[in-house]
Design goal:
2 copies of one chain form a homodimer. Chain A is 38% helix and 16% strand. Chain A has 460 residues and is of the alpha/beta class. Chain A folds into 3 domains: 237 residues, Aspartate Aminotransferase, domain 2, CATH 3.40.640; 121 residues, Aspartate Aminotransferase, domain 1; 77 residues, TusA-like domain (Translation Initiation Factor IF3, 2-Layer Sandwich), CATH 3.30.110. In chain A, the strands form 3 sheets. In chain A, strands 1-7-6-5-4-2-3 form a 7-stranded mixed β-sheet, with helices on both faces. In chain A, strands 11-12-14-13 form a 4-stranded mixed β-sheet, covered by helices on one side. In chain A, β11, α12 and β12 form a beta-alpha-beta unit. Chain A starts with 13 loop residues before the first helix and ends with a strand. Chains A, B: This is Cysteine desulfurase/sulfurtransferase TusA family protein. Chains A, B: Keywords: Iron, Iron-sulfur, Metal-binding, Pyridoxal phosphate, Transferase.
Chain lengths: 460, 460
């Protein structure tokens, strides 16, 4: 039963499990205590910090352990912002950061700060030039992920770090998705990561703050972890996290090369095997184990259930799978289709057979969902009946508005227009994306008392 | 090699270890995901929440898991204060709260709030009447620990909760030290606890917020744990924490009765076996497994090392064992001796033989430290030489100023005075405490250009 959602969480690496077992015996005491159990715990903590710092590429006294990657991001951003309060309250983030960064940015804005979101291209990457133009004399901190968690696109961190260094702005890098594959290149100032993404246990994040970076920890004081991460240290998990990081790094290059072949196969074959599919993310500058695609006329939640029944655990950035009814902010920022979205992230050790099995199961699962929705019968060619038609899709949820549009486009001649009324938030993203995929002209959106009217001109 | 510092951290309970193992296999995935690994994780999380809520005595939807007891306190206090912002910014805490509470109170004060510390009696207990008098019309929140972590004194939580309820003020209870022994009685509003104190794994705290309590989570938004605890849930540890809480509760009454006998033995015998010792904390209203005493003319760190060499791991609230050079705020608030302080907290399963062994080793260890310091020769009776003497103890650290005082008291007649010059912060606590123990009159303190002058009149 292949699990292909390692970007969410990875099962515990065998080395992590061994280290955890040993540290539960040897490292349960308070490392601040003077007696032998405490001294033993202190030795384990020091060794774990050395190992993690080596993997990150920083000094041991620059690195602290936090209870999660989210805590590392929140504490890192809050401390860096406060450390530069005199410079100003301007924060720069990319539009495709992890929600932990964006939520911290929202909190900053709510507290009176200002936030600039740097847009990304259709592949999900920021441009260093555009990043540079967003920095001002009051920019306190800039944030950029090392690689995107939804589409796998690797960001130009080293170039952006240069741009930030030139402007004297510290760069915080969220390295959650990439740290297991290698250190983050470039002159970053603050780095956050999460152990359970590389096969370490949950309950451990890393926060590295380079010497010389102005940093003022926020929240109540606590003497542990250089005052940067309060609470009793989760030492057994920290030991396991450091041990597994070292272990996955030792095999990272070979495993990356192997998984890259499998991911390339998925990228190529999905486009051939499934009609009306869009593979998203950058073709080359990407994580080795992650690929994302979206399927037209498919409801993401139904597709996930279908794949789950077939034995494959994958994730989705479609709105229909979350409770918020909004599509993934990453796909929206990229301007790509979000309906029927599937993210495949292969764990280390994934075999070619497992990937081949997935490629067999996927077309069937997509076809089943489409059949339930009345696709493709609904899309069969019909003769044009009018120069322009209006489709009332109010109350219908993704992917129905796009299905209604696809059905209606055949009822107008080339040059004719279809107007779709929709109150589904996702239509704003998916109708233009559908036009781009199908070669039609998207004419724009007009607010209506209920929802919006989206106008499309048939071009082919 | 007996470990007698379970109030700091307890080794993992066997049930916790079993549950952790199982949950590492079954509960590593994201409980928010739709596939089978996610659903399995969700079931485990729901079951752990039910079990923990039952042990706490609240509804499952009132309880969230945090990464530590400290996080539970910080998040609970911040949320409760923000929820009552309109009422005012006044916070009431006892003077003997855990540092996590006091640090959060300091952060509140730094942000413009006001804080009242309710004093305690010589046994470390607050008085509900005094607590009531500290509540004002602008009091947003009140905090009280269920039992003190340094001296074991159980606080009158139910009575204080009534007083708070009458004033319409929510009471936050830090139940870290007591939750393994039983639920917190009374009408508390918010409760925080820490799993590694009851033999659960590190990395898990509990935060319970009663329905109807105004609560506004602070910090960046996060959809997990009802928005009250950000970051990926440490599910294996949460499962282990809940399982071990249930297990320790099942045996709590019997084990409490057994350990209470052993602690009573320590309380009685220490006073007989060790000259010049003060047992602190309440004799009856106390945790079953914890006893604290202070030894005159002893440096706490040396005593801890001596006991460690003899095979006993204990803790100390003496200044000489911390990096801060200030004595425990708990002992200071109680006004009791802090020098040579030893806290013994017995783990479940401690045998009578282990306790007897400790009672044999302790007098030897104390005698060794005193011999090194030149005690008791220094204290041998000398004929009075003057009506008043001044002792220069500047630059000397605890316990030296008190030893100098004890040596000098024989050099004045009854009715004569000894003035001790000291720049050691601890003298302010320990000189009056020594007077009380020895039956001399403490006349007060006068600031000097360097340190202070402490005046003592010989009375016996």
């Amino acid at each position: 039963m292949p699990y292909f959602d390692t970007a969410s969480a990875a099962p515990l690496h065998p080395v992590a499990r061994q280290a955890l077992q040993a540290a539960l015996d040897e490292g349960w005491a308070d490392p601040a205590r003077l007696y032998r159990e405490g001294r033993r715990a202190r030795l384990l903590l020091d060794a774990a910090r050395e190992a993690a710092a080596e993997a990150v590429g920083c000094r041991a006294d620059e690195l602290v352990f936090t209870p999660s990657g989210t805590h590392a991001v929140h504490a890192g951003l809050a401390g860096a912002l406060a450390g530069r309060r005199r410079v100003g309250g301007h924060l720069v983030v990319s539009a495709v950061e992890h929600s932990s960064v964006l939520h911290a940015a929202q909190a900053h804005a709510a507290a009176g700060g200002t936030v600039t979101e740097v847009p990304v291209d259709r592949f999900g990457a920021v441009s260093p030039v555009e990043y540079a133009s967003s920095l001002t004399s009051t920019t306190a901190v800039a944030c950029l992920q090392s690689a995107n968690h939804e589409v796998g696109t690797v960001q130009p961190v080293a170039e952006v770090a240069e741009v930030c260094a030139a402007a004297g702005v510290p760069l915080l890098v969220d390295a959650a998705q990439s740290l297991g594959w290698g250190p983050v290149e470039g002159r970053w100032s603050v780095l956050a990561a999460s152990a359970h993404k590389w096969g370490g246990p949950p309950g451990v994040g890393l926060l590295a703050v380079r010497k010389g970076v102005r940093f003022a920890p926020q929240g109540p004081a606590d003497e542990r972890e250089s005052g940067r991460s309060p609470g009793f240290t989760n030492l057994p998990a920290v030991v396991a996290a450091a041990a597994s990081l070292r272990a996955v790094r030792a095999e990272a290059d070979a495993e990356a090369a192997r998984l890259r072949v499998l991911v390339d196969r998925i990228r190529r074959r999905v486009a051939r095997l499934v009609p009306d599919v869009e593979v998203v993310g950058h073709a080359d500058r990407r994580l080795p184990h992650l690929v994302t695609f979206s399927c037209l006329y498919v409801d993401g939640e139904s597709l996930l259930h279908g794949l789950d029944r077939a034995g494959y655990s994958v994730s989705s950035g479609s709105s229909c799978t979350s409770s918020t009814l909004t599509p993934s902010h990453v796909l929206r920022a990229m301007g790509v289709l979000s309906e029927g979205n599937v993210r495949v992230s292969l764990p280390r050790g994934t075999s070619a057979e497992e990937v081949n099995g997935f490629l067999e199961a996927l077309p069937r699962a997509v076809a089943e969902v489409r059949a339930e929705l009345g696709v493709p019968e609904a899309l069969s060619a019909t003769p044009p009946v009018a120069e322009s038609v209006e489709v009332d899709a109010l109350g219908l949820r993704c992917p129905q508005p796009v299905i209604e549009l696809a059905r209606a486009i055949g009822t107008v001649p080339v040059g004719g227009t279809v107007t779709v009324l929709s109150d589904d938030e996702v239509a704003r993203l998916d109708i233009p994306a559908w036009c781009a995929m199908r070669g039609h002209d998207y004419l724009g959106e007009t607010p209506r008392p209920l929802g919006s009217a989206y106008r499309v001109r048939r071009a082919v």
